[in-house]
Amino acid sequence: MSILIKDITKAYGNQKALDNVSFSINKGELIGFLGPNGAGKSTMMKIITGYIRPNSGEVFINNELVKTENPSIRKNIGYLPEHNPLYTDLYIKEYLQFVAGLYQLKNKNKKVSDIIELTGLGDEQHKKIGALSKGYRQRVGLAQALIHDPSVLILDEPTTGLDPNQLEEIRNLIRTISKEKTVLLSSHIMQEVEAVCSRVLIINKGVLITDGPVEQIKKGNISQQQEITIEFDKEVKKESLQKVSGVHSVSLKNNRWIIESIDEADIRPNLFQFAVDNKLVILTLQQNQQSLEHVFHQLTK
Ligand code: ADP
Ligand code: MG
């Protein structure tokens, strides 16, 4: 077990930010930590990395208990905090050498040039951090998180605020890095987690509400209703569609009917029979997969 979280509770004053949260992450997994703003993601990450103390509960990284008084645990952890705080007046190399010094690394120059290469900072390496675009600053943030070659990486909203090109570049970089590390990546954006993670933990108001593979969570157990898109060659009365067996609701969108079933039963044969009975030709018939976004809204509303 790379990361083990046991019954973590954290309150700021009388406001509970985390309520008895437990989960574990195996070596080599890339896990999404998804939740709306204020859900408690950053708080959890600060506790995992030993920056703040929980009120109760324990965190183990590679079977070692995380304690704020014991910073040596941080040798095993790379942390990219939310908003990626950096010294904008330092040159990239200068900053990374400073970080390498904090970790008391040997062969500092080699480590810095290796990490510059890994994170694709080569062309910009002589610039001051303040002169970099947001995407490149994010690379510097990842470089500082990786320079000591930790086995566990904690990335707090690493792609927030990037433009689409930068986003794809940083996602690719995270995918590459994650091949050799255990990664926990937080986001409030479903697509983000869907794009890079295999498993997702969803947190809301400090409570962990689901944990499972992305595909499984999308398939549901949440709502058994199926959604079908169907298009006919001729106009159809809403009331008549509504009467088809198994249909719960019907709405029209761009000439296509969006039909929700009552339960998990497949209503496509019924719709097909409806078309035959009414001498209609089916132009489109498609079963819509629930997006993670839909699931997320259902779970957190
Ligand atoms: P997330 O990262 O999911 O957006 P946070 O962990 O930042 O959520 O915050 C969880 C809750 O705890 C929020 O309600 C937030 O306002 C509160 N909170 C976070 N940090 C502090 C703090 N230092 N002092 C008081 N309240 C805080
Ligand atoms: Mg946060």
Quick synopsis:
This protein is an alpha/beta fold and 301 residues long. It contains ten helices and 14 strands.
Secondary-structure map with pairings?
Layout: E1 3-12, E2 15-25, E3 30-34, H1 41-48, E4 56-61, E5 64-65, E6 77-80, H2 92-102, H3 108-118, H4 134-146, E7 152-156, H5 164-178, E8 182-187, H6 190-196, E9 199-204, E10 207-213, H7 214-219, E11 227-232, H8 238-242, E12 247-253, E13 256-261, H9 268-277, E14 282-288, H10 292-300
Parallel strand pairs: 3-8, 3-9, 6-7, 7-8
Antiparallel strand pairs: 1-2, 1-4, 4-5, 9-10, 11-13, 11-14, 12-13
The structure holds adenosine-5'-diphosphate (ADP) and magnesium ion.
- The shape is elongated
Biggest beta sheet summary: 6 strands, mixed
Count of alpha/pi helices: 10
Listed once per kind, the bound small molecules are: adenosine-5'-diphosphate, magnesium ion
Q: What are the segments in which pLDDT stays under 50 over at least 5 consecutive residues?
A: none
Structural class comes to alpha/beta
Percent of sequence in beta strands: 25-35%
Number of strands: 14
Chain-averaged pLDDT: 91
Residue share in helix: 25-40%
End-to-end span in angstroms? 32 Å
Note the run of SSEs as H and E: EEEHEEEHHHEHEHEEHEHEEHEH
Question: What report would you give on this structure?
Answer:
There is one protein chain. This protein is α/β, with parallel strands linked by helices. The chain contains 10 helices and 14 strands. A 6-stranded mixed beta sheet has the order 6-7-8-3-9-10, sandwiched between helices. β4 (56-61) and β5 form a beta hairpin. α2 (92-102) packs across α3 (108-118) and α4 packs parallel to α5. The longest helix is centred in the middle third of the chain and has 15 residues, at 164-178. The protein is elongated. The structure holds adenosine-5'-diphosphate (ADP) and magnesium ion.
